[in-house]
């Protein structure tokens, strides 16, 4: 490093020489340092002022929401071509089933019939205590739903057959 001190101007000059490159020589004169600091400061101020202009400030007041424009389309109205008259003034049906499974001991039955607004039917099943429960019911608009429940003991309790263990 070569250092020069000039007494007449009272300036200190520091020059660095790279031993690998004999032509490269950097001299840091105080005037050059001040000029470089001013250039860096001006560049930083310019960049910050330009970037500040790109950002909008946060809103400080309340504003109502923007109205959303929706496309207008008239509502489609469904038109009935002709009224369908499928009302049956005297509905009638009848069904029945009976299950007697000796393997599982399941025993139940049901039957029901309807004529107009009157429904009559009955069902039966075997309760866990071994009695048969029989329910007979009727329903009509005048009296509503009425059920009569009766219990009959069975002669022998039906138990499920044991299942052989598979090994």
Biggest β-sheet: strands ordered side by side in the sheet: 4-5-6-7-8
Biggest sheet character:
5 strands, antiparallel
Distance between the termini: 99 Å
Order of helical and strand elements:
EEEHEEEEE
Rg over CA atoms: 52 Å
Give the percentage of residues in beta strands: 35-45%
* Mean model confidence by pLDDT: 78
Helical element count?
A: 1
Structural class: mainly beta
* Principal-axes shape call: elongated
Helix content: 10-25%
Weakly predicted, low-confidence segments: 1-12
Number of DSSP E strands: 8
For the structure shown, list the relevant keywords.
single chain; 167 residues; mainly beta; 5-stranded antiparallel sheet; 3-stranded antiparallel sheet; 8 strands; 15% helix; elongated; disordered N terminus; Insect_Cuticle_Struc_Prot; cuticle; (African queen) hypothetical protein; Insect_cuticle
């Amino acid at each position: 490093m070569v250092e020069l001190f000039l007494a007449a101007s009272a300036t200190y000059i520091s020059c660095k020489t790279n031993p690998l490159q004999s032509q490269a020589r950097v001299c840091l004169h105080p005037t050059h340092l001040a000029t470089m600091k001013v250039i860096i400061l001006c560049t930083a101020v310019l960049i910050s002022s330009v970037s500040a202009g790109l950002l909008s400030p946060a809103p400080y007041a309340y504003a109502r929401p923007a109205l959303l424009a929706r496309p207008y389309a008239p509502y489609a109205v469904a038109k009935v071509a002709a009224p369908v008259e499928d009302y049956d003034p005297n509905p009638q049906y009848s069904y029945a089933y009976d299950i007697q499974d000796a393997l599982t001991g399941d025993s139940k039955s049901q039957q029901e019939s309807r004529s107009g607004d009157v429904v009559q039917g009955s069902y039966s099943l075997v309760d866990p205590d071994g009695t048969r429960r029989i329910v007979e019911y009727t329903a009509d608009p005048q009296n509503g739903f009425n059920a009569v429940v009766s219990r009959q003991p069975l002669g022998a309790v039906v138990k499920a057959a044991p299942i052989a263990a598979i090994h």
